[in-house]
Amino acid sequence: MTAPKLRLVDEAKTAGPPAIAIEKLTKTYRTADGDVPSLTPIDLDIRDGEFVAVVGPSGCGKSTLLKLIAGLIQPSSGGVTVAGKPVVEPPDDVGIVFQNPVLLAWRSVIRNIMMPVEVRRLDHASHLARAQALIKTAGLTGFENKYPWQLSGGMQQRAAICRALVHDPKIVLMDEPFGALDALTRERMNLQLQRIHHETRKTILLITHSIPESVFLADRVVVMTDRPGAIAAIYDVPLPRPRTLDMMGAPVFTELARQVRSHFYSQGNID
Ligand SMILES: Nc1ncnc2c1ncn2[C@@H]1O[C@H](COP(=O)(O)OP(=O)(O)OP(=O)(O)O)[C@@H](O)[C@H]1O
């Protein structure tokens, strides 16, 4: 294994058309109490099929970045392109997973997962088969007809991930999806997410507060500065796939995690 490599320049631009292209992106929230600059110019390209994790201090603008990519809010300047198209509204080709699974209590697991299909009026039969395949991958077989309140927190989050994938989006954006889970469930979810990424080859952008989680899952880890957020560094993760939890003890893993963590200490901010 090679030593972790620090990159301050985004070299992904050379590797074919990016799935997500972020160019000179800024966001300042206008509030009654004044302006809140949340992102300073961000430039980042994410390759098709790449798994990118974003870490940074609390309030540095990570969720803002995700919402801009998802077309849920508008930038102050600059822009985002998804699959070659400028984002002006939520693109069809994007699935989103939030920290809270936000499942509808009165709908069964399968009917929650099928919601994006209903909303987009897609073919029911083919997507039902897809939902069932996702349920299997996510280890939820047998729970299709249960209601969210009959599932554990981890199972609910797995159902939310299935829902984000059911319409077969090319890109999945995840905002701290495992933050509310206990450590063991979180590790299992990490393994399952890795498997889903391997089997579906989606482009995944994961926001996380966990440095080990970012190193374990990602091809690249983007470290952000304090608000207004900018990119402090981008690290390649040279660990082979599939990754095992044992790899977390490998010198290359701990060294990379140490390097990522050092940014937080240097900013006087341990999140
Ligand atoms: N709708 C809004 N109006 C005004 N300010 C906002 C709004 N949303 C976010 N902010 C501010 O923008 C900054 C960045 O917020 P954001 O939620 O993007 O940070 P974050 O890095 O995701 O934080 P955390 O890690 O704590 O979830 C914060 O100072 C926040 O208070």
UniProtKB/TrEMBL annotation:
| Entries under Pfam families matching the protein | ABC_tran (PF00005)
- Alphabetic keyword roster: ATP-binding, Nucleotide-binding, Transport
Q: Does the keyword ATP-binding apply?
A: yes
What are the ABC transporter domain coordinates in residue numbering? 20-251
Q: Which InterPro entries match?
A: AAA+_ATPase, ABC_transporter-like_ATP-bd, ABC_transporter-like_CS, ABC_transporter_ATP-bind, P-loop_NTPase
* GO molecular function annotation: ATP binding; ATP hydrolysis activity
> By its UniProt entry, which PROSITE patterns does this protein fall under?
ABC_TRANSPORTER_1, ABC_TRANSPORTER_2
Question: Which family does this protein fall into?
Answer: Belongs to the ABC transporter superfamily.
Q: Name it.
A: ABC transporter ATP-binding protein
Q: Which organism is it from?
A: Phreatobacter stygius
The top of its lineage is: Bacteria, Pseudomonadati, Pseudomonadota, Alphaproteobacteria, Hyphomicrobiales
